[in-house]
Model the fold of this input.
Amino acid sequence: MDYKDHHIEVSIRANSNDWVPDVYVSYSENGKSVLKSSRIDQTFASPQEADKAGLAFAQKWIDDGKPDQ
Done:
């Protein structure tokens, strides 16, 4: 998904009976490609919930000015 000149990808993986999203955000900064990856320390009951949470996490990170780059 593209969001404010950033590309967001969420990868979902199974963790016992729960699901965990891994978030990847790529963007260009000062003419260079940047890839930021984050693991959310929370599990979800379904892959759909994990995907939705991963997207929301990435969008908030972008909206907050990409803290802790």
